[in-house]
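Fig. S4 source data, part A: sequence.
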Amino acid sequence: MKIGTVRGIKIKLHFSTLIIVGLVGFYAVTLFLDLVPEASLVEILLVGIINGVIILFSILIHELAHSLVAQQYGLKVSEIELYLFGGVSKIEEEPRTPKSEMIISIVGPLSSLILGAIFLAVMLFNPLILPPWLFVTLLYSGISNIGLGIFNLIPAFPMDGGRVLRAYLWNRRNNLLSATKTASKLGRIVGYSMMALGFIQILFGQFGGFWLIFMGSFLDKSARKSYVQAKNEVTLSKINVRDVAGWPEFAIPFDTLLNDAIRNYFIVFTQTYFPVVRGNDIVGIVHLDDIKRVPIEQRSEFIIGYFMKSLSEFPLIYEEETGKDAMRKFNQMDHRPHVAVVKDNETQRIVGFISESDIVNAMKLELYSHGS
């Protein structure tokens, strides 16, 4: 659910966030009742609701710190999603240098620590006598934010601390993939350790161990997924569009009837899309889905040219760009086929086409040639 936008970044709230808000409210109320057993129902509700809202706000500040700094380094951030385990900033590419990775990663925990310190400072140095519910709210929010900051500094990739570790290793080794592999291994070790601790807690009757098992499993899966993603990005950056792009072997004439196109092209060559030519020029691309929208009984009445998408509807990419650049453009497309028009940067002449499947196949060959 979208709740707002900050500097072009969509802020989304997943329904699972209500669980963490509820848990924080519950534990804040538990602390409040330990300190003030005679608290009224209104005070109890105030403590629970306000602390739940504050932790949501705190997580948003944490993620905004990551996202806004990432934008300063020229990285595109599409959205921030708040969910059960906190939040995630969807930065659409890896940082380009160890320094930018280090700074982007550290500002999140740093913002949490600063926010926690502010809450505690207001509690400790306020000259006014605070009502008990406000005192506990400041205390709990301060401790929660400081705990959030410290927890995120654990060197377990892809958590912030793990990314700081990766930036350090990347700078030392000058090899992003090697640094990611080491950091993700440590992330998985931390994940397994959390799961083991959770099992031990359960054996001793502490059912909070289920939460540790859940978090440890999530961290392990995230570490593995992040390593694969980093490996794919590094591989894609080695692929040159010039080496993969080409001219289509077959094209459908503009005035071909839909039925004839299906029978003589889509079925014969088992492709899902074809260029459309008018004279000697490619004027568009037609996908099988474009034809499927036409009722079967009408496919003998219309020509393919009326259902193609013009070349202007497809992204433009230059020969000098990489597979990583191409995949970024394909991910932004809202229609199929995922094809880009390839141009020469100097002459602006169309020199070919490249599809998502071309990039995927090239990536597989690159990985295979290196034994990955």
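Fig. S4 source data, part B ends here. The radius of gyration is 27 Å.
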